[in-house]
Amino acid sequence: MTEGKRQAYLDRLEELLPAKEASRVREEVEALIQDRIEEELERSPEIDEAEAEQAALAALGPAETLADDLVSSPLTISLATRRTFVRSLAAVFCCHLLLSVALTFAGAKWDSIPGILAPLPEEPFAAVFLGVITIFLIDTGALLCVFVAIGRAAPDKLRPSTPLHAGWTRRGAIEGLVLLGLMAILVNLFLDAVFSVRHGNEMRPFLAEDLKGLVPCINGVLALFAIQPLLTLRGMGHGVLGTASDGIASLSASALLVAATRGNLVQMPTSDKLMRDAADVVTNLIERVFLVVFLLGALLLMLRFVSNALRLRRQLRR
Amino acid sequence: MPPSVDPKFAAELRRGVVQLVALHFLDTPRYGYELVRLLSAADFKLEEGTLYPILRRMEKAGVLTSRWDTEGKRPRKYYELSDEGRATKAAMLAAWNTARDATDRALGQPMEDDEQRPTDTPSEGAP
User: What are residue B44's phi and psi, to 5 degrees?
Assistant: First the structure.
């Protein structure tokens, strides 16, 4: 019985320690225990060996605590890191969940990014609930890996600087408006010219009508994005109105990108040089590229929306 | 009734000097539990679970050397100061003396060596 407790303690300690130190530490701790037992028995002859051993093990403390103290560089996670992790997780989870909900409402039938971005189950409720939990677990695991690799600066290093960011300065606002203007011109006047392929002597556009039909919505989103830079030029870009408009624009753009994935994106024209089968393969290939770009863009814009929402909440509290 | 000392304060004070006291005792080879007894007798009550990691860290840092004595009825590991340990102990002792003197000065207590008093204080018998 006596040897049992001692051996159990030493076994547990050895199990917790790195392999190269474990057996050496075990020998040393065993010697310490023996010394203490002898001392206890000499000091108090009325106690038995089991009680002396109990006292010796109590003096060492739990094996887990001792192992922790023996490790050369114990892991300490600072408060700032913990808070940053929790806030980042909240933002990423909201974005991921919103995108999944959007895909569900858009009627997607398969994973957009297998294993990571997919529509939620529609029934039963338990499956929907499990789907939400799964999203949370995926995000927690992914963010944990990012923080381990990059550290607390992860959110700052990873935060995307989207090309539509109007900036907080007048110069940034002017640059943003110019960029939005150029995008509006491209979308409205040069879409077919840019997205076309050469067939013999002529250029044929390959964007599908479903996608081109979204041009009015794109114009609307670009107009929403223009609000904050205009407010910045009037000295009001930092306020509630600027934050809210940018948030709404981000959300709208994200929803638009998701909606765009539902219809046909590409229709590769056929000719005597590009037969139907080959055209279908090329169409599928380009559509997959568009799909990834659109969904990544939607995710980044959703992150921007959540960031604006959190900022708006702070502004409204003041 | 005077307020009692916050146990954390006393513990922090002890934690700061226990390593120096342990190094002092390790001028001669000692085994683990022997050191526990000596520290306890000097009013530094330290359990093996606290002392052992300290000894291991000091050994890893090169401050202590160790050897197993297998001649007795059972093997015992003895620790002793290394040359580097002696230098470390001297440095820690100097730091301790500096901190003690600074504290005494701040609290207005007389220092052990009266020659170290500030010179603006007139000594007895001065005209």
Answer: -110, 85
